[in-house]
UniProtKB/TrEMBL annotation:
Xref: Pfam families: E1_dh, OxoDH_E1alpha_N
Class of this enzyme: oxidoreductase
Record family assignment: Belongs to the BCKDHA family.
Gene Ontology molecular-function annotations: branched-chain 2-oxo acid dehydrogenase activity
Reaction equations catalysed: N(6)-[(R)-lipoyl]-L-lysyl-[protein] + 3-methyl-2-oxobutanoate + H(+) = N(6)-[(R)-S(8)-2-methylpropanoyldihydrolipoyl]-L-lysyl-[protein] + CO2
Cofactor(s) of this protein: thiamine diphosphate
Keywords (A to Z) from UniProt: Oxidoreductase, Thiamine pyrophosphate
Region Disordered, residue ranges: 1-57
Ranges of Basic and acidic residues composition bias in the record: 1-13
Biological process, per Gene Ontology: branched-chain amino acid catabolic process
Designated name of the protein: 2-oxoisovalerate dehydrogenase subunit alpha
Ranges where the 2-oxoisovalerate dehydrogenase E1 alpha subunit N-terminal domain occurs: 16-55
Length: 434
């Protein structure tokens, strides 16, 4: 038996006091910003392993930053996806359209046409370039900031706006928060407000695809803050155990509403390095470099399709705007951050690349931006005919009781009747929303 005298002394004796570490962002409103500690390697200098490589052979890429577009606006190195100019222009157009759409919807919220909207400014490449590297029937499980996927997949803008306005054209019948789209036809899984739930769902879908001997893979997008949820870690475990054909995209925009990424573990390691402990392939990518976004997603898609295993990819980017229309970032972070952010703007970087290779010019860009803004404006007007917030032109009130049970149980029937009676009393026989 151990001698009790060997035990460390009890508290209050001469043991050192413990100290809890509470992460604190490096700058707050009004402070100068310093991004100099970021290790941003030269574009083209990161190795591109074989798509079937064992995760242990590529640990360096979980800490590095895969980049293709250099300061000279040209593509460099082994990750250059060598896309033709037409594809690059399509990518640029999707990105410009997403930005125009965001601007219009944000304004619509300020005008009281919807209750809520979320922009993806500065993060367009992480949804558009990545989804362009997937097949159109690969199943995507996005978060709320990947509207670019729907735009890239050709989902009609009017359907998006109907959903945002929760009007009578809304296919989801006003049952989802604005921007929480869903489209089976576009292999776009319903967005959930419960963060990170999409990650195990994507892995489960990918496992089912493998069980059935299908050829489609799954991809999910999750914010860096949301990786602190248990769901994300279960997803990683299932993905590695069953070698699921799935891509786990972590969008590290450095903020989770007002919490900086340190609260999700960013002070200690990279999000891509999470992959290592699970035995997943891990890549860390410049999320503002559309070519690097495309190339890394294609690498992971080819790997998954060849049954070589899942990949976790961290896209390092910056949330240029507020979290949502309900947020004001000037209360918790320095405005200088956006100015000084060293990886630039993804739309501008792709535009400058196309100009540098002689496939684009400022005039064409201006014309395209104008066209996108006008198209969004027109479609918005069209959608407004179906109603906006508060105009009563939403789905009939009673539909909230439908589509859950094949046959409405008696107690819900009673509730529906009572609700209708009360609304008639309030609004009259010809009143709205019955
Ligand atoms: C399970 C859960 N916890 C908390 C929230 C509230 N919430 C909504 S968005 C958000 C921030 C998420 O940040 P991040 O994952 O980094 O994504 P980003 O908004 O930056 O794209 C939080 C905490 C939620 N919706 N669900
Ligand atoms: Mg975030």
């Amino acid at each position: 038996m151990a001698d009790p005298a060997d035990k460390p002394p009890r508290g209050g004796d001469n043991r050192p006091a413990l100290a809890l570490h509470v992460p604190e962002p490096k700058s707050r409103p009004g402070d100068p910003v310093d991004f100099s500690d970021l290790d941003i390697g030269e574009a083209g200098s990161q190795p591109r392993p074989d798509e079937g490589a064992h995760p242990s052979e590529m640990t360096g890429l979980a800490y590095d930053l895969i980049r293709v577009l250099g300061d000279d606006d040209r593509a460099h190195g082994p990750w250059d996806p060598k896309l033709d100019p037409e594809t690059l222009r399509t990518m640029l157009r999707h990105m410009a359209m997403t930005r125009a759409f965001d601007e219009r919807m944000f304004r619509g919220q300020r005008q009281g046409k919807t209750s809520f909207y979320m922009k993806c400014t500065g993060e367009e490449a992480t949804s558009i370039a990545t989804s362009m590297a997937l097949a159109s029937d690969d199943m995507v499980f996005p978060s709320y900031r990947q509207q670019g996927i729907l735009i890239a997949r050709g989902y009609p803008l009017i359907e998006m706006i109907n959903q945002i306005y929760s009007n009578k054209g809304d296919k989801l019948k006003g049952r989802q928060l604005p921007i929480m789209y869903s489209s089976r036809e576009h292999s776009f899984f319903s967005i959930s407000g419960n963060l990170a739930t999409q990650t195990p769902q994507a892995v489960g879908w990918a496992m089912a695809s493998a069980i059935k001997g299908d050829s489609r893979i799954a991809a999910t997008w999750v914010g860096e803050g949301s990786t602190a949820e248990g769901d994300f870690h279960s997803a990683c475990t299932f993905a590695t155990v069953y070698n699921a054909p799935v891509i786990l995209n972590v969008i590290n925009n450095q903020w989770a509403i007002s919490s900086f990424s340190g609260f999700a573990g960013a002070e200690r390691t990279t999000f891509a390095a999470r992959a290592l402990g699970y035995g997943l392939a891990g890549l860390r990518v410049d999320g503002n470099d559309p070519l690097a976004c495309y190339a890394s997603q294609l690498w992971a898609a080819n790997r998954a399709r060849a049954n070589k295993g899942p990949t976790l990819i961290e896209y390092f980017t910056y949330r240029a705007e507020g979290h949502s229309t309900s947020d004001d970032p000037s209360g918790y972070r320095s405005a200088q951050e956006r100015e000084d952010w060293p990886l630039g703007d993804p739309v501008k970087r792709l535009r400058d690349h196309l100009i540098a290779i002689g496939e684009w010019d400022e005039d064409r860009q201006a014309a395209m931006d104008k066209e996108c803004a006008e198209q969004v404006k027109e479609v918005t007007k069209e959608a407004e005919k179906n109603g906006i917030l508060g105009h009563g032109l939403h789905q009939p009130f009673r539909t909230m009781f439908e589509d859950v049970f094949e046959e409405l149980p008696w107690h819900l029937k009673e509730q529906a009747e009572q609700a209708t009676r009360e609304r008639i009393k309030k609004f009259g026989e010809k009143g709205p929303n019955r």
